[in-house]
Design goal:
alpha+beta; lysine-tRNA ligase activity; ATP binding
Length: 136
C-alpha cells in the first residue's frame, strides 16, 4: 500500500489539474475506510483533485471493530518498522466501536485547500497555523 501511495504521489498527483475524482484506493492505504461492497481489495473512498492537489476526500467509515483492530495491528507493525505516518492502535476508539456504530460516511475539505484552489497559493501560504508558515 505504501509503495502504491508513493508512486501515485510521484507520478500522478501533480498532473491532475481536473477537477478529477479518484476512487477505488487499495485497502492498505486507508486504515479507517470501509472495504468496497462489491470490489475486492479496494475501499469506498474518493478524492477530488484540482490544480495538482487533493481538494476534498470522502469515504464510508469502517464500523466493524474486529476488522478495525486488524488494520490497527497492521499499522502498528508498520510503525515498528519505521513508518512515521502509520496509525497507532487506539483501544478507546475500538471499545467505542464495540458498542455499535451505524453506517457512517463523510467528506472533508479544508479552508486552506479552498484558498489554494482559488488563489493558486501553496499550502504554506494558506495555512492558518503560524508554526507551519515559512519564516521571513
Amino acid at each position: 500500500g505504501k509503495l502504491v501511495e508513493e508512486i501515485w504521489e510521484f507520478l500522478c498527483e501533480d498532473q491532475l489539474w481536473g477537477p478529477v475524482f479518484v476512487y477505488n484506493y487499495p485497502v492498505e492505504t486507508s486504515p479507517l475506510v470501509r472495504q468496497h461492497r462489491t470490489e475486492r481489495g479496494v475501499t469506498e473512498k474518493w478524492d477530488l483533485y484540482l490544480r495538482g492537489f487533493e481538494l476534498a476526500t470522502g469515504y464510508s467509515e469502517l464500523v466493524d471493530p474486529v476488522i478495525q483492530r486488524e488494520r490497527f495491528e497492521d499499522q502498528a507493525r508498520l510503525a515498528a518498522g519505521g513508518d512515521e505516518e502509520a496509525m497507532v492502535l487506539d483501544e478507546d476508539f475500538l471499545q467505542a466501536m464495540e458498542q455499535g456504530m451505524p453506517p457512517t460516511a463523510g467528506t472533508g475539505m479544508g479552508l486552506d485547500r479552498l484558498l489554494m484552489a482559488f488563489t493558486g497559493l501553496g499550502i504554506r501560504e494558506t495555512v492558518l497555523f503560524p508554526l507551519v508558515k515559512p519564516e521571513k
